Each structure stands twice: as C-alpha cells, then as structure tokens.
Amino acid sequence: MSYLLGVVLFALAILISVSLHEAGHLLTAKMFGMKVTKYFVGFGPTLWSFKRGETEYGVKGIPLGGFCKIVGMTPQDDDVEPGDESRVMWRYPVWKRTIVMAAGSITHFALALVTIWILAVSAGLPNPDFPTTDAQARQEPAVIQLSECVVPENAVRACTPADAASPAAQAQLRNGDRITSVNGTPINSYGDLLTTLRGLKPGETAQIAYVRDGQPGTTSTVLAQTQRPPLDDPKGAAAPVAALGVGLVPSTPTRVTYGPVGAFGATADFTGQLAVGTAQALQRLPQKVPALWTALTGGERDVDTPISVVGASRLGGEAVENNAWLVFFMLFVSLNFFIGVFNLLPLLPVDGGHIAIAWFERARSWVYGRIGRADPGRVDYLKLMPFTYVVILIGGAFTLLTIAADVVNPITLFSR
C-alpha cells in the first residue's frame, strides 16, 4: 500500500511541476500584455473548465502534462482575431519573448532550488567530503559494517538462503569494529584490508585483530568465496576471490545539515554539481539506447540508463515504501532540473527552439542592417516543420523505449 501511495504521490508531484511550468508561461505572457486564450492541466477531453476574462482555464481527462495557448507564437499562426494583431507574441521584443518561453524552465529550476534549500536545513544534503570513489574509500580506516551474506557472483542483490553466511558475523565481529590486522599483516585502511584479503584464498582461515570501543580483540574465521574484478581494474573480468562479508563504514557522515543562511551556499554548490551531472547525462543519452534495448529484451538493466516518468514514479514508490523520503525529494529535484535543462535545448518544438529562433532573427536583422541590406523578416516556421517532425519522432521513440524498459525491467533502489 505504501508503495502505491509513493507512486501516486510522485506522479502527482510531476503533474504539479508541469502545470506550474505552463503557469510560468501564462503569467509572464499576461504580464507583458500578450493574449492567452487557454490554460489547461492535462490533455484530451475537457472534464471541467471556466472562463475568466479572455482565458479559459480547466482540466482535461489525460493527466499527462498541460498546455498554455498564447496567440501568435509564430507569424504563421492563423488564429488571430481582428483587433488582436498588436498582442500576438511574435510581435513583441525578443527579450520579452525569451522571458515568456524560458519561464517554464525557470519554474522547474525554482522548484528544484527551493526543495534543495529545504532539504539543506532539514534532512541535510550529501556531504561533499564523503568518499564517492573507490580510491577515496580505500583511504578510509577499516571500520566495518557486516553484510548479511556473501553473494557468490559479482552482483548487488538481496541475500537468499543458498548464499554463504558472512564470515565476519560468524567470527562475532560487530558493526563499527576497526580491523587492525589480518594474519599478522597490519591494516591501516580499508584499501589495506581489500589488498590483504585478495592475497588469501577462499576457504582459508584468517586470524583477525580488531579494536572495539577502544579495546583490542582477536578472532578467526573461514573466508568465503565471491567474484570480483581486479582492484586496479574495476571494469576487468571478475574472478574468484576470498570474502570476509563486510563493507566500509565511512568516517564522515553521508549528509550535512545547514543553517538558514549557510543553506544558500550549500544549495548553490549542490546545484552546480547537479548542472554538471545533468549536462553529462544529456551527452550520454544516445549511448544509452543499446542498453535500454538490452534491458527491454531480457538483459540486465543498467542503473545509469535514463528513466521515464513511469520509472521515476516507481522509484518514488520504492522510496516511500522504505521510508526514504530524502531519496523521494532528491528524485523530484533531479527530475525538475533535467526537465528544465531539456526544455532549453535549441530544438523545436521545445521552448529552447523558439528562443533560439527569436535570437537568430535578432542577430540576422542586425547583420543585415550593418551591411546595408533590407531586414529579411521573420523565420518561416513552416519550412522548419520537417526538422521538427524528425525531432518529435526521435523523441517519441526514445520516450516509448524508456517507458517500456521501465515497465518490463525497471531500475530498483531497494530490495523488495
């Protein structure tokens, strides 16, 4: 029940975000005096609407987005009523049109920033000093967290009755113990522990010295077997290695909370990291198509593949089911930021395409004026329709592929 509640809540949060996106266009267009005839949440048949002034507001039957109808977005629009010629959007200065078209993405960014700030002063943001790479983790002291079992293959999954019990647990080690030596070899870091264990064989008995609550102790256990790639080549072929059944407890906290003022700086830093990550994700999109197809046809789902609204809602459901509300809101932040950036791409039919054309017209008019030639006027959108259709076709196919993968082989963050 909590899973379904989470799915519905996240889907509702997305719908609200998209509705606010369109509200951003609506409010800025009205602020500049442009004529807005419709603002609807959803698509399809109208369920309910009312008219206030010259604008009809309402809700449609398919809750998959929304739209805002601004009269005369292009010179080719033919829905301009007599007397409204001066209020069509394309006649307004380019800076005003830019604000109106960018207002949707700005709304997404604002939602993300406000949510990040609230998290910074409440639940906390990811600690920038927390080890995020294997090299950083290996420099940490060998303070351990016991695993429930040893998974024999090189995979992350839930334990089954067939998996070997954790040798560390069998040796009566506890979470928070710091290992100081294995078979007489000093252990000064988690990297030393991994290196030393790789030098032993599965089934071999290991003599372990540790410190618990400041008091030294010793124990022994028989090492289990698992599959791992070489330490110096994480992408190399996995081979049988000895396993103690422990993970690392980092010496730094995973999250940091801030005061109301300090949260602004933390929000800016986190947003910068988010921007870099979003740009990198957009660059990798074409490379992820084969991985999505592999997931759809029965292969393992790469956790780095894109997700659709369906996949994001399912992850939101998992987060609520596991009481991981920070994950829920981080998903909300990431999705809003991604949508905001994506809508600014200079491609039709997204907002960024209209902005790019407006500034192209402005630059072309300036150049023609400088060389003494007549202003060529506005871009003919009808000539750009074939290119627009190609973008829609590619985007639609990619969306369908992503949704299908999220239904057939979804990414999961928690064992269910």
TrEMBL record:
The keyword Membrane applies. The keyword Transmembrane applies. This is Zinc metalloprotease. Its main location: membrane. Residues 162-198 form the PDZ domain. Belongs to the peptidase M50B family. It comes from Micromonospora noduli. Signal peptide: none annotated. Residues 10-364 form the Peptidase M50 domain. The chain crosses the membrane at residues 99-120, 387-408. CDD domains: S2P-M50_PDZ_RseP-like (cd06163). It is a multi-pass membrane protein. It holds the Pfam family PDZ_6. InterPro entries: PDZ_6, PDZ_sf, Pept_M50_Zn, Peptidase_M50.
